[in-house]
Amino acid sequence: MHEASIAQSIFEMTSRNCLEAGYSEIKSIRVRIGRGCGVQPDALMFAFEALKAETIASGAALEIEVVPLGGTCNGCMEPFETEEQYILSCPRCGSSSFKIEKGYEMDIVDMEVN
Amino acid sequence: MNVKVVSRILEANDRIAGENAGILRQKGIYSINLMGAPGAGKTSILERLIPALNGKRKTGVIEGDIAGTEDAERINSLGVPVVQINTGGACHLDANMIREVLPELPLDGIDILIIENVGNLVCPAEFDVGEDMKAMVLSVAEGHDKPLKYPLMFQKSSALIINKIDLLPHVGADLARIRKDALALNPRLKIFEVSSRTGEGFDSLTEWLSGLR
What we know:
The structure holds 2 protein chains of 2 kinds.
Chain A: H1 2-20, E1 26-34, H2 41-52, E2 61-67, E3 69-73, E4 79-82, E5 98-102, E6 106-113
Parallel strand pairs in A: 1-2
Antiparallel strand pairs in A: 1-6, 3-4, 3-5
Helix pairs in contact in A: 1-2
Chain B: E1 2-8, H1 11-26, E2 30-36, H2 42-53, E3 59-65, H3 70-76, E4 82-86, H4 95-101, E5 112-116, E6 133-139, H5 146-149, H6 151-156, E7 159-163, H7 168-171, H8 175-185, E8 190-193, H9 202-210
Parallel strand pairs in B: 2-5, 2-6, 3-4, 3-5, 6-7, 7-8
């Protein structure tokens, strides 16, 4: 359910940026969501579709890039990536000491405007 | 026309959270964002903790619920300042909700502000409200599988209060497994085992809380 608040934040931030840049219509928005965030892309999409009606983003497509969890293992020193929402041990060597480097993003990347 | 935005989606929330933190820090208040599922025992734990902290640290409470004032009434009867937020359907508290109620609390008379979030094991973990620390309650009746099913809250919390340990013989939850999985997700997690019904385990929790600055 927190996807509704997140969609609202995306909508507010992009609308403000669009108007400030001197444009009046948002065509598309690209966002980057880490898999570790616990944000469901389908629910985010649904919330955004519900919010955008009769706004400057009414025709906007939301493009969600999901970033897998990844990092570097302190045991085997190799980089890793997983499709899970969390990681307890290095998929290669099993070490539980590692550094997470991606997968917790929640960013707006850019947008197309008219 | 392409416009680069490149900002955190929750930037507005995080900015207000930063302002809240500044206000609380200026007043010398340590703040705790207390999270957990509905029925885990968040309010019951406060009913034990607040009298135990009495005399050591002055507490204040913000109660977050979708509707109703029952929790605030329970805290109010303990004689400490409390304000109720009704989110009207929202599944978590956000920084702006906290900012709006801060003027309603006697901040000069509070050492520890406990913000009891909406009962939910998922959404509150994403939203900073300006707290010094996130803590969570998990009751053994919810089952030992919860850390791996709801990893984010365990990762974001600094303390895990495992409640209802008096029910262990009846619910068959594996306490060792809760500890092992929670620590695997978050090696720095401080874990307490309590029963808000019997009072067991509250001495160490109270001592730890009263030392937080």
